[in-house]
What we know:
Layout (H helix, E strand, L loop, with lengths): L5 E6 L6 H12 L2 E4 H10 L26 E5 L5 H8 L6 E6 L2 H9 L1 E3 L6 E3 L26 H24 L3 E5 L3 H13 L12
Parallel strand pairs: 1-3, 1-4, 2-3, 4-7
Antiparallel strand pairs: 5-6
Helix pairs in contact: 1-6, 4-5
Amino acid sequence: MASKLLRAVVLGPPGSGKGTVCERIARSFGLQHLSSGQFLRKNLRGGGGDSRVGGFGSIAAFLPLLTAPFSCGAHTGFPRTLGQAEALDRICELDLVISLNIPFETLKDRLSARWVHPASGRVYNMDFNPPHVQGVDDLTGEPLVQSEDDRPEAVAARLRKYKDAAKPVIELYKSRGILHSFSGTETNKIWPYVYTLLSSKIPPLLSDEEN
């Protein structure tokens, strides 16, 4: 585990690869990856938590996670609105914010091809990360489903909603000088630049080639 305290947020529209980037960050730098999606699934299955965290509502149930002690942290999926960013400010000072900029057409194609295992949250993409057997989860054999939000007719509305909500958040972090934006159509091509940025902040545990 790295010794320096680092708190980072990865921002990006639906389908931009935030989860993949954070998983690589966690492996390469010994960071703790906090995902609002995983938090929601765990707590909602147990009857707790706040179902509005994953959308654009209350974050009271989620904020305590960020106060837990850890040497380093990388978080994805939060904050999504200016109000959430301001609430986060009151308990946690971010060291850097990574923003993933992916073309609209790429996002539309990714989301429309995405299927999920509801119980675990495992995500498959029928174009570049399909399940071993079509329509079922690799580990459990249970059926995969496509979210209503991932159907082609709903994708454009989701992306517009994200853009409108995220713009002031991105401007806030840009004004503080902690925003680092990366553009591209493939996570594998964006990742080396993210790795180089973080390597200038904390020592990596794995080389770029090992991840």
